[in-house]
Design a protein that fits this description.
Number of helices: 9
Distance between the termini: 24 Å
Order of helices and strands: HHHHHHHHH
Helix content: over 70%
Number of strands: 0
Strand content: under 5%
Oligomer: single chain
Shape: globular
């Protein structure tokens, strides 16, 4: 049991550490600021969207359906996830605190880390794959979230990075929650993955994809393709182990 706990904490910490790492990379604004702001930032937004889409299509939905034994309840769960993220976004919007990249980080990191904790005993290979996907998507999401948070009143670069560093610890907490309460409840575990999938799909098409578009530039759409292929490659690589 102790080994399982340390394993989950280690996986989620490594995956979560990519959030402040992405923010740290974004803090170097003096290196070609115009290029950083335009082409590279839009590429990373699209890259994160592609990885999220890949995580949904190759891990979250297939594993979620399998955990729910291919129940038709999978469809309402996905729709409920989209509606939930819509409501949260509207609430944040009414408070003039819309930060889609930051919301994307937390609203996919927490349920995915929870699912990872539940899968660590049931399917260790899938847990490793999910940790790799979480890490890959947290890096560009952390980069973009830093730019969002740092632009808010009262946030300095240091304060933003400290805040993002604190977000790392939500991963182990969510992972342990999944381990203790979901590892023996596959139906609930699958429902969480599918709800997260619906929410991620909503965020991709509502916020992330529109932000990634840049007139007369090919980098952002290719970033989305590369991101999706990274998720698919991780899935195939783990499947061959």
């Amino acid at each position: 049991m102790l080994v399982d706990i340390l394993y989950i904490v280690g996986l989620t910490l490594v995956a979560g550490a990519c959030i402040p790492l992405g923010g740290l990379l974004a803090s170097f604004e003096r290196v070609g600021p115009n290029w950083l702001e335009e082409e590279f930032r839009h590429f990373l937004i699209a890259l994160g969207g592609g990885i999220l889409l890949g995580a949904v299509s190759v891990v979250l939905i297939p594993e979620g359906q399998s955990s729910m034994k291919d129940s038709l309840w999978a469809i309402p769960a996905i729709i409920a996830g989209g509606l939930l993220f819509f409501v949260i976004e509207r609430i944040l919007g009414l408070q003039r605190r819309e930060s889609p990249q930051l919301m994307g980080v937390m609203l996919d990191f927490v349920p995915e880390a929870t699912a990872l904790g539940g899968l660590a005993v049931v399917s260790p290979e899938t847990a490793v794959l999910m940790a790799a996907l979480i890490a890959m998507q947290n890096l560009p999401e952390g980069f973009n979230a830093y730019r969002e948070i740092a632009s808010l009143p009262g946030y300095t670069s240091r304060k933003t990075l400290v805040f993002m560093g604190c977000l790392v610890f939500t991963g182990p907490l969510a992972g342990l929650l999944g381990y203790f309460f979901l590892s023996e409840r596959p139906f609930a575990l699958g429902a969480i993955m599918l709800v997260a999938s619906g929410g991620i799909l909503y965020l991709i098409f509502q916020d992330i994809a529109p932000q990634s578009r840049l007139e007369r530039h090919w980098g952002p759409p290719l970033g989305a393709v590369v991101g999706f292929c990274m998720a698919l490659f991780s899935h195939d690589l783990v499947g061959q182990v």
